[in-house]
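[User] At your convenience, examine this fold.
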Amino acid sequence: MAGWTRRTWLQQAALGAAGAFAGIGAPRSARPAGRDGPVLIVAAATGGYSIQDAFLALRESEVSPQRRETLNVYPDDWVEDFGPFRAVQIPEGAPDHLGVATPGQRRFLQRHRQDLLVYTTRSSAVNHLVAQQRVLNGDGGLRGRTLMEEVASQLGAGRLLANVNMAPTGFSAPGVDPTVPSWAQPVAIANPWLFPLGLHGHQGLRPAWHPEDVARARQLRRSLEDLAPGRPAARWDAWDTLREQAAELEAANLVERLNVTQSSSAWRLEDYGVPANDAADRLAEAFPYLDLDPFEAQAALAFLLVRARVSSVVTIGLPMATLDAADRPLNPRAAFDASHGRHRYYQALVWDRYLSVLSSLIDLLQSEPTQDGGTLWDHCVLFMPSEFGRVQHRPGAGGGFGSAHDFEGAGMIASPRVRGGRVWGGVSPVTGRTVGFDRRTGALDPERPGLSEAEAVAAVLAALDLDTRGLPDLSAVRRR
């Protein structure tokens, strides 16, 4: 955040305000903003992950000797079991070791495997943008809506920011259904550090504006507007509705409640009348690269949005830009898709970052009590979609190979609301590719494909106990 001036700060805050108002408008009712309710968190695994380099890794001993040098399999002692799941740890000194610790896979399974469901998939596209959109619209199964728009339409009435999207590329694209309520449409956030400043008309300005002066200026403006001849009634009504929503946002004190930035010598929040969030120390501990890494900042803001009970859907996603910290690489350009060049190296790097951040997000949600005696995590469904899988062939022993996109892959849901601790499907020791399963029982069935995009979104809706709009019955995912 170094190098930001007051001018750039306010300019970016203005952009944040435009994004904030893009998804609100029509009057809303139903669920009060302060009440607990189901929440969907989408964590987009940008670039296409390989589940065979994480939770469904193959050991060399499970593959015939003739195939060990041509399939993406690991030495037995590089793979650790956690129930039905596995964690890969490339040892120090191996050709594709990162030179830094990568505990993300192991830590996630140690803490959260009981809530994790991994299922194999069969994608209908291996083009990034097409596949990203199809994994979220069910390949058309939601009739023009994205999963996030559908969930927000069913759960978001009364939420000030019902559907927040911080993901990159096609994971941020809205649907094409014109009947989606305006308040259920995505609120796009390009900068999670500055977005909260766009939720108030004058807080953060220097010198500070007194609220009474602002109220008088607004009243004068309205008096002048009433004198304007030939005003289009519909447009002015819509404008008045937006002002009402803006007043709600200001009254909710969201600048402070959603602030993920800590005050520092380079960024003195108190100089602008912006108080630090009361969870600032917890956020800094959970996300050590919070001031640098947009993915960590997104996860921090996701936690605060859920904690404030202002959102029913929050989408975050790995960035599509190279990012290095002083002590380690954080993200390669194109995230998981950097595997085209060095498959194992970049899969290990990005799996570690992805799962480390999500594990910390879940930990924070588990630390927040709710009125029913549980925690915020009890109300959440974390959907972790990937565009597609990766081809598992390599041209000989060693890890120095690249991988292409593959139709066969996997998806993941983590939540106390699902029948966790399970794998639906598996990996073939003959081809290294994922295989399908029986939809009713989850039993391995190599004759079947993995879940389609439509079935995957149906599973998420079923986990949230929502109307699946005629999609296939995946109620077997729900924890009884």
In short: Residues 1-22, 24-32 have pLDDT under 50 and may be disordered.
